[in-house]
């Protein structure tokens, strides 16, 4: 497939539609990307209407647009509208899926060393409360997830494969499509954490073959904070326990029984922020209009450029590994605490983040890392901005 690259004029236009790019160099997209102006205008405009006309009345006016959010998300990940539930963030989405599984003592959960801390806590909680056994598949010597090791770890007790596609504090990627083929071959449940993936690169749940997938809005989708969604395959929805129930998730109720909704919205509750929902909708639409394949191509180009320039600086070590890498670039400056690097760059109006050991505990401990600097690029960033950051690093810490 031929992908049309961004032109300089297009990048200028996209940056002009994002106020934040005029004030800072923002390399913290894996934390919270700068939203397009249209997303902010959508949220604030809706809130203003609520203030004037009332919350329920404004919701009724925008009912079609709110409902269309599910259609847009379904397009984004190649799912069905009925397989999408809107939640506050990826942790809520992941927890709703994971804790809804009917675990029995001795059930095995297989995961990878790149798992996020919230997911690890979920595993430990299941181990404590249900007697679940946790198996971790380590990366090989090249830093890649080992598919043969996964096959070897499977047993009749394997209940779930739970994988984070892109880690919080590393630039490598886990082969979720290949893992999905193994899960399907053996009839094992498959949960994917795509928190850092959606909006950065193509995510196709049919290609992945997952039963559940969790996403947040604030990262590469450029949506407001406090937004996210959960995908649950239609054929699995009835098998997942409901952790919370209200009149929205179970609209048919008597004094003796209730019937949940017949779609993934059974995993939602009625009360949610409609303004943020429309903001998420607008952000997804914005990404789809640009083209996820195009976004992914540019993100890879910018991340590769950043790694090359950082590696050329004496005293800077890039920590990313694996045959496939993403828009997250992690590095350290010899002899300088990562928080100090972050703060010094912030003084120069350059946003980066600090990857803490707790965030990706298994990977960080294995590689003896206490922390690292995380610089994450998006399509609206430029090669010139990368040069600015690398120059500041050279001036601040090397010379």
UniProtKB/TrEMBL annotation:
<keyword id="KW-0032">Aminotransferase</keyword>
<dbReference type="InterPro" id="IPR015424">
    <property type="entry name" value="PyrdxlP-dep_Trfase"/>
</dbReference>
<comment type="similarity">
    <text>Belongs to the class-V pyridoxal-phosphate-dependent aminotransferase family.</text>
</comment>
<dbReference type="InterPro" id="IPR015422">
    <property type="entry name" value="PyrdxlP-dep_Trfase_small"/>
</dbReference>
<dbReference type="InterPro" id="IPR015421">
    <property type="entry name" value="PyrdxlP-dep_Trfase_major"/>
</dbReference>
<dbReference type="InterPro" id="IPR020578">
    <property type="entry name" value="Aminotrans_V_PyrdxlP_BS"/>
</dbReference>
<keyword id="KW-0663">Pyridoxal phosphate</keyword>
<dbReference type="GO" id="GO:0008483">
    <property type="term" value="F:transaminase activity"/>
</dbReference>
<keyword id="KW-0808">Transferase</keyword>
<feature type="domain" description="Aminotransferase class V">
    <location>
        <begin position="27"/>
        <end position="386"/>
    </location>
</feature>
<protein>
    <submittedName>
        <fullName>Aminotransferase class V-fold PLP-dependent enzyme</fullName>
    </submittedName>
</protein>
<dbReference type="InterPro" id="IPR000192">
    <property type="entry name" value="Aminotrans_V_dom"/>
</dbReference>
<dbReference type="Pfam" id="PF00266">
    <property type="entry name" value="Aminotran_5"/>
</dbReference>
């Amino acid at each position: 497939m031929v992908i049309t690259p961004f032109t300089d004029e297009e990048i200028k236009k996209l940056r002009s539609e994002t106020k934040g790019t005029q004030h800072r160099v923002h390399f913290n997209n894996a934390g919270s990307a700068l939203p397009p102006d249209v997303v902010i205008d959508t949220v604030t405009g809706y809130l203003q209407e609520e203030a004037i006309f009332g919350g329920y009345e404004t919701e009724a006016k925008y009912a079609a647009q709110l409902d269309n959010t599910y259609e847009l998300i379904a397009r984004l990940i190649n799912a069905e509208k009925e397989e999408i539930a809107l939640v506050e963030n990826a942790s809520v989405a992941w927890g709703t899926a994971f804790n809804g599984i009917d675990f029995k003592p001795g059930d095995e959960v297989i995961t990878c060393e790149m798992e996020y801390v919230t997911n690890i806590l979920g595993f430990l909680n299941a181990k404590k409360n249900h007697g679940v056994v946790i198996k971790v598949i380590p990366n090989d010597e090249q830093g890649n997830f080992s598919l043969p090791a996964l096959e070897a770890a499977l047993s009749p007790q394997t209940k779930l494969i739970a994988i984070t596609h892109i880690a919080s504090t590393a630039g490598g990627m886990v082969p979720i499509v290949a893992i999905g083929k193994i899960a399907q071959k053996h009839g094992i449940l498959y949960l994917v954490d795509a928190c850092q993936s959606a909006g950065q690169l193509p995510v196709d749940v049919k290609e992945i073959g997952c039963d559940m997938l969790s996403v947040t809005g604030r990262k590469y989708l450029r949506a407001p904070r406090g937004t996210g969604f959960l995908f649950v395959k239609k054929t699995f929805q009835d098998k997942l326990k409901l952790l919370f129930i209200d009149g929205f998730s179970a609209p048919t109720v008597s004094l003796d029984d209730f019937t949940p909704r017949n779609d993934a919205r059974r995993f939602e509750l009625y009360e949610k922020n409609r303004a943020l929902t429309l903001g998420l909708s607008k952000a997804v639409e914005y990404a789809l209009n640009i083209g996820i394949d195009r976004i992914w191509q540019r993100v890879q180009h910018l991340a590769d450029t950043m790694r090359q320039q950082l590696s050329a600086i004496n005293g800077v070590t890039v920590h990313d590994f694996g045959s496939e890498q993403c828009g997250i670039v992690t590095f350290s400056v010899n002899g300088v605490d990562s928080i100090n690097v972050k703060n010094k760059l912030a003084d120069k109006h350059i946003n980066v983040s600090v990857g803490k050991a707790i965030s990706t505990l298994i990977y960080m401990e294995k590689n003896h890392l206490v922390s690292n600097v995380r610089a994450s690029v998006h399509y609206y960033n430029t090669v010139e901005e990368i040069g600015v950051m690398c120059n500041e690093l050279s001036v601040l810490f090397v010379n």
